[in-house]
Design goal:
Mean pLDDT: 85
Order of helices and strands: EHEHEHEEHEEHHEHHEHHH
Number of strands: 9
Strand order of the largest sheet: 3-2-1-4-8
Radius of gyration: 17 Å
């Protein structure tokens, strides 16, 4: 897919502070640029929608929930490749060329980037390492047979990208899940082919607010619950108790 069209989909809720810069970076700095940027707004009460539209994004309004929002953005997208991007994550300017190159391999079904987590201009090396390592150690420990067959678990701050046809064939994101919808997509796709990763940068604002050790313990606890088969209701209870939004 050396000339495949790429739609960038950004789920957002109350991201007025960062959404404009992210959209502008995608549209003005990426070379080559994507076909479009779609911001799927889940009911922001600040200036997110206005800032995103002013920066050049197309707006899709929908209910709240990251999986639901990304599905709504994907339904409106025209690209052959769908790249799901967090509002506070910046990918390299050659992101489109990277994913086109990776998807030129027919068996590749999912591509992600490996972000350097940054807070206030300071790299958070422990969290960055753990974010990279959990791609491997979670499935290796709890789903070893799938790991041997190629399962890797990647997350939304890694800028996940897949073919639009594959995304729809597996039923899109599981919108009922309050957390781990990105990991579920990895599970749904992994039998079809290998996963690729590249470099990126993402905000460490949540980690900084919670404290680096506490944040990584929470992330690991949620991942272990999910890998152990926790029901959506159990994940939702954990989210209410531990996983507070940071804007």
């Amino acid at each position: 897919m050396s000339a495949a069209s790429v739609s960038v989909i950004i789920p957002a809720i109350n991201e007025e502070r960062v959404i404009g810069d992210t959209v502008r970076q995608v549209l003005r700095e990426w070379d080559p640029p994507p076909l479009e940027v779609i911001v799927a707004d889940g009911g922001s009460t600040d200036g997110t929608v206005e800032a995103a539209r002013k920066a050049g994004a197309r707006i899709v309004r929908c209910g709240r929930g990251r999986g639901l929002q990304m599905n709504a953005g994907a339904a409106a997208a025209a690209g052959q490749l769908l790249l799901f991007l967090h509002a506070d994550t910046l990918l390299p300017v050659d992101a489109v060329a990277c994913v086109r190159e990776d998807f030129s391999i027919p068996r590749t079904v999912l591509v992600g980037f490996q972000p350097l987590i940054i807070d206030g201009g300071r790299p958070m090396w422990f969290s960055t390492f753990n974010n990279w390592a959990k791609t491997y150690y979670g499935p290796m420990l709890l789903r070893p047979a799938s790991y041997v067959r190629g399962l890797r678990i990647m997350f939304g701050d890694q800028g996940l990208c897949c073919r639009a046809a594959d995304f729809r064939a597996v039923g899109c994101y599981r919108a009922a899940l309050p957390l781990m919808e990105d990991a579920e997509l990895c599970l749904d796709l992994h039998n079809a082919g290998p996963l690729q990763d590249r470099a990126a940068a993402t905000s460490g604002r949540r980690i900084a607010a919670w404290g680096e050790l506490r944040a990584n313990c929470i992330f690991a606890y949620i991942a272990l619950l999910w890998l152990g088969g926790a029901a959506p209701e159990e994940l939702r209870a954990v989210q209410r108790r531990l996983y507070h939004d940071i804007r």
